[in-house]
Amino acid sequence: MKGQELLKRGLYGVKVEELMEPGHFACAGCGAALAMRIASQVLPNYTRIVIPASCWSIIMGQYPCLSVKLPNVHTPFALAPGFATGMSASIKIKRKKATVLVWAGDGATYDIGFGAVSAAAERNSDMIYVCYDNEAYMNTGAQRSSSTPFGAYTPTTIKGKDEHKKDIISIIADHRASYVASASIAYPEDLKAKILKALSLSGFRFILIFCPCPTGWGFDQSKTVLVARLAVETGIFPLVEVENGALKISYEPSWVDLKEYLSLQGRFSNFTKSEEEELRNFVNSRWDYLRRRAEDAHL
Ligand SMILES: Cc1ncc(C[n+]2csc(CCOP(=O)(O)OP(=O)(O)O)c2C)c(N)n1
Ligand code: SF4
Ligand SMILES: [Mg+2]
What we know:
The chain is 39% helix and 15% strand. By secondary structure, the chain is of the alpha/beta class. The protein has a single domain (3-298), classed as Rossmann fold, CATH 3.40.50.970. Helix 4 runs parallel beside helix 6. The longest helix has 26 residues, at 273-298. The radius of gyration is 18 Å and the shape is globular. Bound molecules: thiamine diphosphate (TPP), iron/sulfur cluster and magnesium ion.
């Protein structure tokens, strides 16, 4: 097979069609833009995207100059899961074929829209909910969210954040959602496989995608994929899948020292030794928990 043809064939023989156009409105090196590019390579053309207030409200552009060749609608911050619930209900009544995809930031998911996310998960409303996680309110100046990691500098945590990142995967999984997974832009085949898996199921399907933000995190725009890869290889961002409550670890990190991840980013430049130790302990205890949960799933 010729190289060009090979490139066009994505994972599992799925043809890669680029639904995301160049010339979008994201900053150079934006992980959240890359997440959409990868995801949209496996999204069917009957996908309808719902976007709450976020960087993606800007990145998408204005009709008719959209950066993704799929119909989309913008909603207020806390409204996307409710809006998507109504959309998928009306699609069902009209017997149309469409997949409703919410594409939301961490602020909309972990904090401001959390009630609506929880309600949609509890109802098992029919949608794929993607949270592209850049660990702060980037569109308004990188303020901390409950996804921001411990110790990180943001304009609202100038001495470093006191609290650890919220475990949104476990929280949504404990709603008994159909499918819950974490993925990363640095592992595109795993990300696409998880989108495909979500597409093959129905009900509330939740995917958290780790998306470094050079502008808000303070690293060079050429290092986005490296930063994302180190987040996984240091164990700080575990790749997992939860189906019907059973957790599976998708990838075993190579346990690169946390320092390599931290030292690339301005937001950790004032990290003390004890903060580093605190974060390391947090990562270890989270992995203990994940391993116990994965073992329980085998019983
Ligand atoms: C109720 C409400 N509060 C605040 C805002 C202002 N606002 C718009 S986008 C945004 C940040 C969104 O953060 P996140 O969901 O993490 O997405 P990101 O910008 O990081 O892509 C905020 C605070 C708003 N639109 N509505
Ligand atoms: S601020 Fe960050 S998330 Fe927003 S467009 Fe720029 S790089 Fe992307
Ligand atoms: Mg964000």
